[in-house]
């Protein structure tokens, strides 16, 4: 069994978040539907970037956000995701490494530019997101770093990336390497539309490769094609060791080892931006798991991290999650 250098290594979309403030007039001028996310091509991404005002640029993506949250708890982490050898690839690489996260993926010299999400924040706090997936979705087995995977306690896979055949092959290869090295494999289903498009492949991935599955209510019922959350939860438990199911303000439910644990959502005075709630919940939960903490404490760490991220604009923690957890008595 390989030496475990990392608590969690994530594999997912490598996206640069470009966040700028604007007024409603800017959205109208560019025919953007306020509060929604849409996919755009490289040309539109370039034009919108030129038109935006001063912006904050930083590494993003669902599992990358989880890994950033884990780092805020004090975990040692790595990330694997594809960027291009361009300006935004350099930004992603520098930013994620600045958090103390190991990132060794070689930038692609050909193909699509680095993925980016242009986020426009209006004065009322609404986020209008325009996403160009670029190089990230061309992820293939050759982008994997065996040393990172084999050195992890948990390898965490992002469902958003599970789209093209090459990425599916990469996930299967990563899971195989992880298990051979004695690591657990965790998977987030990410989005019900992803699940609908590739339901059979997702079901196979969950039953054959994943030890831990993260999903919200809509994602898990979509996976098992049932209307009842309880039916979906039971089905998930047949397929994996641990099912971690989130239900927004109704908290979360953790099923495994013959037990069901319900965790209340942390109270938040005002939700400013729900983006990243699931990503940060996973961060807290996985951190607790890698530290050998009880499942209930893992869930409470997840709720704490989710509450922190929805209390401000942006999908990354602005306060030290380690300090918040210690103040709550969840960590020593």
TrEMBL record:
Name the InterPro entries on file: Carb_kinase_PfkB-like (IPR052700), PfkB_dom (IPR011611), Ribokinase-like (IPR029056)
Boundaries of each Carbohydrate kinase PfkB domain copy? 56-317
Show the SUPFAM superfamilies listed in the entry. Ribokinase-like (SSF53613)
Q: Which Pfam families match?
A: PfkB (PF00294)
KW Transferase (keyword) present: yes
Q: Does the keyword Cytoplasm apply?
A: no
Q: Which UniProt keywords apply?
A: Kinase, Transferase
Example of a GO MF term: kinase activity
**Family the entry assigns:** Belongs to the carbohydrate kinase PfkB family.
This one is known as Carbohydrate kinase
Upper classification of the organism: Bacteria, Pseudomonadati, Pseudomonadota, Alphaproteobacteria, Hyphomicrobiales
């Amino acid at each position: 069994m390989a030496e475990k250098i990392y608590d969690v290594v994530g594999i997912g979309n490598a996206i640069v978040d470009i966040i700028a403030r604007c007024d409603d007039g800017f959205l109208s001028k560019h025919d953007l539907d306020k509060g929604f996310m849409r996919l755009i091509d490289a040309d539109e991404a370039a034009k919108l970037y030129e038109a935006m005002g001063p912006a904050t640029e930083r590494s993003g993506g669902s599992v990358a956000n989880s890994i950033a949250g884990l780092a805020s708890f004090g975990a040692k982490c790595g990330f694997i995701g594809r960027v291009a050898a361009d300006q935004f690839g350099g930004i992603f690489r520098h930013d994620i490494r600045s958090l103390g996260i190991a990132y060794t993926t070689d930038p692609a010299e050909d193909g699509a530019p680095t993925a980016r999400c242009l986020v426009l924040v209006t004065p009322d706090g609404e986020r209008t997101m325009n996403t160009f997936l670029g190089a990230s979705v061309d992820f293939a087995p050759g982008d994997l770093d065996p040393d990172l995977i084999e050195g992890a306690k948990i390898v965490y896979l992002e469902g958003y990336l599970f789209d093209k055949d090459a990425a599916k092959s990469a996930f299967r290869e990563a899971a195989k390497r992880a298990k051979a090295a004695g690591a657990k494999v965790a998977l987030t289903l990410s989005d019900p539309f992803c699940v609908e498009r590739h339901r059979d492949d997702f079901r196979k991935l969950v039953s054959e490769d994943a030890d831990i599955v993260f999903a919200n209510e809509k994602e898990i019922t979509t996976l098992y094609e049932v209307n009842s959350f309880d039916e979906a939860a039971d089905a998930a438990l047949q397929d994996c060791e641990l099912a971690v199911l989130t239900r927004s303000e109704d908290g979360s439910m953790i099923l495994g080892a013959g037990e069901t644990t319900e965790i209340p959502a942390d109270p938040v005075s005002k939700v400013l931006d729900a983006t990243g709630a699931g990503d940060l919940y996973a961060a807290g939960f996985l951190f607790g798991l890698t530290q050998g903490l009880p499942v209930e404490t893992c869930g409470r760490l997840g709720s704490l991290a989710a509450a922190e991220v929805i209390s401000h604009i942006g999908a990354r923690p602005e306060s030290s999650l380690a300090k918040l957890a210690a103040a709550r008595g969840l960590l020593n």
